[in-house]
Amino acid sequence: MESDVERVTFEDLFKVMKGMTEFETEQFKFLCLRSIPFRTIDQMDITDLLQSLEEKKIISADKYNFLTECLILIGRMDIAHQLGCNTFNMNLLASHLHEYKSFAGLNSFIILLHTLAKGMGEEDVQKIVAYLLKAAYVSRETFKMCHNGFQLMSLLLKVRHIHANNLNRLFDLVQVLKRKDLEEKIKLYQDINSSSDESYKPTSYMPEKNKNKSNDDDDDDKSDKNTDNKERSLEHYKMTAEPCDTNLQHYKMTAKPRGICLIFNNVHFMTENLKDRIGSDVDKDELVKVFTNFHFEIIEYRDLTKTEMQEKLGEVSSMDHREYDCFVCCILSHGTEGIVYGVDGERLPYPSITSPFQPLKCKSLTGKPKLFFIQACQGLAYQSGEEDIEFDCLPISVPPSIPHEADFLMAYATVSGYVSFRSKKNGSWFIQNLCKVFRDCSKKYDLSDMLLMVNNSVSKEDGLVGNQIYKQVPAPLSTLRKKVFF
Q1: Residue 415's beta-bridge partner residues?
Q2: Which residues on neighbouring strands pair with residue 337, listed in sequence order?
């Protein structure tokens, strides 16, 4: 399989990272708070920050581990991919980071705060600020520059209002918002840290030329340096942490119908900058055939606005799924990193697609697989020189995501930052190869194996744009706990 991106050299890394948005840079600074002092990090730009990490030997030409984990948390999988972290490793890392564990020495409390901050909107921040001002914890002037969750959490850390040894104040803040989802994240952190060894030792998950001992300057980790000289590979870690189980469980898949298969097929768009997606009906028809054959009840919608898509997602999530074994959602539309478009040109973020089906909101699907297949670009489109090949994207950048709860699969047509291809006549590479593999192999192979086959088959496709041949590779992200057999 050909690589879909050109690897970034250490010299070019600074240029690539400079392309991050101001909000992404703010998140990166936040994740570096335990590595770089408060008094200096505020004044740093991205170049200063990378130079400081290099001077502290946290990153180098042979050591991208810390940076890769930060990029995964921020949602810049495309840069992590260019640093040499493949999709399989990114999935595994994302799973461990969700449990506030780091292979590279990221502080677990900082990961928790990043997770909370990422889930807060400006309205949430203002509610917390109002609460803190009323309680007279800090002055109004102190909060003047707080407009997002990361600015708020940075400030609360700086004034020592919150800390890892006492989570009560953190619980108070999320209760002000009445956000059970954020409260559950804190409880997970609390459970993990009360039942596990605090000195979680980092391990290497990408090849390094020099296997030096950890140079992290966190005081809590200094006593571990002498025990960390022999870093283990990711594969070795997997073998020791989770021994191979030849009797893996699989989800129950015997109900008839198996469940709902919801299909959004956006073809005709109302805005000038979004072309009609000719060929999308070919994809829709194939999906209907395949999932009907898998005994799913098909619900399909065509040409919905962003609001209409949200309403339909809410309606389906409010249904009683107790008699079903699975839920499938297929979205065929224009998109970019982390979002798909309604036909009105309004953006629907991935979390808005999946959140209605999270356990607290859709209890009848708890513990059951929830599978999302998204045919849309995740990056910038190129000018096409061929009439037959088109792209499903627009030049707007929003971080991609996957729901943190278990039992979700997000199968994206392409990796973050890149276009996906669609033929006007034959449909998209991703959906067409997906349906073919499902038809041919579902009686013998489980979903994860079939998605590998889809990756392989799509990677062999060639897209001719002008005189340049372009490639594509899908990017499945999963929190599934068992095998899925259709």
Answers
A1: none
A2: 397
Catalytic residue chosen out of the listed positions 96, 114, 334, 404? 334
Write out pLDDT tens, residues 70-110. Answer: 999 998 888 888 888 877 778 778 888 888 888 888 899 99
Supply the angle between the helices 234-241 and 87-98 in degrees, to the nearest 10. Answer: 50
Q: One of 32, 70, 146, 377 is an active-site residue; which one?
A: 377
Residue with tokens 């990796």: 415
Cα–Cα distances (Å) from 352 to 306, 340, 444, in that order, read 10, 10, 34
CB 293 within 8 A of CB 441: no
Q: Within 13 Å of residue 419, how many CA atoms lie on the same side as its CB?
A: 19
The pair of structure tokens assigned to 328 is 């499938």
The pLDDT confidence band at residue 225, using thresholds 50, 70 and 90, is very low
Answer yes or no: pTM beyond 0.70: no
DSSP-assigned states of every residue in 362-391 = -GGGTTS-EEEEEES-SB-------SSEEE
Q: Domains of the chain, with CATH numbers?
A: 113-195 (1.10.533), 259-478 (3.40.50.1460)
User: What is the C-alpha separation between 156 and 15, in angstroms, rounded?
Assistant: 32
Q: Which single residue is written with the structure tokens 């009323």?
A: 134
* Most confident of the following: 58-67, 203-212, 232-241, 309-318: 309-318
pLDDT of res. 393: 52
Q: Is it true that the peptide bond before 257 is cis, omega within 30 degrees of 0? A: yes
Of 261, 272, 108, nearest in space to 198 by CA: 108
Strand ranges (E), 207-342: 259-265, 297-302, 326-332, 335-337, 339-341
Q: Which residues, at least 6 apart from 147, have a Cβ–Cβ distance to it below 8 Å? A: 122, 125
39/25 Cα distance (integer angstroms): 17
Query: Is 393 known to be catalytic?
Result: no
Say which residue the tokens 């002000």 belong to.
176
Would residue 377 show up in a list of annotated catalytic residues for this protein? yes
